[in-house]
Amino acid sequence: MIQASDIYSFVEGQLTDTPYFLVAVDQPEADSFAVAIDSAAPADIDFCAELSREIRDHFGADLDDYNLEVGSAGLTAPFRVRGQYIKNLGKEIEVLTNAGRKLRGPLSAVDADTFTVDVTEKRKEEGAKRPVEITEQVTVPFADVKYAKLILKF
What we know:
The chain is an alpha+beta fold. It has helices spanning about 5-15, 45-60, 80-85; strands at about 20-30, 30-40, 65-70, 90-95, 100-110, 115-125, 130-140, 145-150. The protein folds into two domains: about 5-70, GMP Synthetase, Chain A, domain 3 (2-Layer Sandwich), CATH 3.30.300; about 80-150, SH3 type barrels (Roll).
């Protein structure tokens, strides 16, 4: 019986020396696996098809009873791995922390365990007639994130 962790390990090895990185291997149903990959550029459908063939070739008959889907992590899907944060440096994101704080602003830095969002808020200073925009850099540990996702602008 094939486990998602077996596919994860294999795909990680296959993506070495490519511009792609593994986001997740999920098992949405007992008889299916969904492999999500990403890269700085949009995921190429031909690459996804080739990776799917490589997975099937590697696992052979053990995978015959399973549906296998290989694709991009998706633009609107929440970030799941550090590589997605790096890919979206400089872009506007929305973050909800485990404490319930919602942040929105450009992603300005990504470290090993944290990332930084430039949050701009309007605040009315004491004695001022109008609110003033103040930008604050907020550093968030990855462990404290309920979700983070890209804000799409059209």
